[in-house]
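call fold(seq) -> tokens
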Amino acid sequence: MFKGITKRWMLNTLSVVVAIIVLIVVTLIFVVTYTFRSSVEQSLASAANELTLVFSGKSAGNVSAFTSGARDYVENFDKKEQMGVMVLNSSGKIVLTSTGFIPENEAFTDFDEACENQTDYAYWTGKLRSGEHAMSATRIVRSDSGTVVGAVRYIVSMEPVNSRVMLISIIIIAIGLAIIALFVFSGLAFIRSIVKPIRRLSEAAAQIAQGDFSASEKIEHKYDDEIGDLCDAVSDMAKDLQTTEQMKNDFISRVSHELRTPLTAIKGWAETMQLSERGTLDRRTFDKGMGVIIKESGRLTGIVEELLDFGRIQSGRMVLMCEKIDILAEFDETVYMLKERAVEEGIHILYDDPETVYPPVYGDRNRLKQVFLNILDNALKYTPKGGVVAAQVLYSPDEPDVIRIVVTDSGCGIPPEDLPRVKEKFYKANQTVRGSGIGLAVADEIMNLHHGKLDIDSSVGVGTTVTLTFPIYKEGDEQALPESVKL
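ret:
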């Protein structure tokens, strides 16, 4: 029944609280008992102190005078309802009582103790022969020469006091038990308010781990506290996992389609060329088929390289071969590589090679060229026929520490809701355009590894602008980013 957090709470917190309450209850009972006992002792002591005045001048060695004075004292004693009075002779024998009855064989020890005490005073507590609890105090009366002429004993029944102490002790114990019970019930209710949501979270997490993301809809919480935040976090995590899972499935579907398309073209032309009789295939058709095979093979190689790079980034095994490079020359070469394709697709590339010599950048030329290819390829893919792709390299004395490359297209643009996620892995805003959806994620990671930035600004129906920001080379960058670093 009790396990986990509840068991730990009972063993740790509850046991400590119970121990403290028991200690408090025992202490209070002791204090109450001591207070009532002290009150009785003070009453007895107050009565005994009167003897100093009552027997002064009457007991100077005259036993009969003491007996006579004691008889008068007992007869006129005004506290008979509160306590009994006994007169004892010099040997400790009871000779007179306020009740008129002389008890026999009562084992009082206070007379002998009072005789031995310098204060001539002693207490006794115990049971009478009747079984009644009582407390007595005996005061010795001496003559002027110091001889014991007698004593007066005051006795009080402790039964009313014990009854009161018992009643108060029962009340204290009941209050202690009520506090413990209240603490237990409130604690269990509080623990239950924690354990139940956590148990539901655990069950939901197990279902989510098995791929049932709908379990997140069953996660509920009543309070806006840490447990509520945890429930919200798990629910959001499940939704993100569901989205990621869907994106991954879409990614696999896209990659499968991307691979199947060139493979189909390669296979089709290869079969055409194989089935054709030797010498019957004209040169033009042959060249066209070989061109398609070479083009689609290159496309396959690009897809595979992109997937491999993505795998390296995910596992932290991407290797950079860094050196000082002319970023302008590398970008210029990339633009030149894509100009023929742009002409074929009817897209205008606007780019003027700056005549200014820019500072070098420290990085991996092949990886940076891969970023340029990805950005320009995306710009061409999303720009319709007759559109424009503009590129420029910017370096300003106002910002001497960075070089920027800005690529702007006049394509369809990216919707505002998709813009923050276009650099995420597997995410693809436009499903109608070819591509695996990881190229931009790889490019962003490469820029991060070079301590640069990839920023995207876009408007639907207007176009997209991609800005690449590179830190220029400074002395000591070799130590900050070695030539061959495994990240």
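The chain is about 50% helix and 15% strand.
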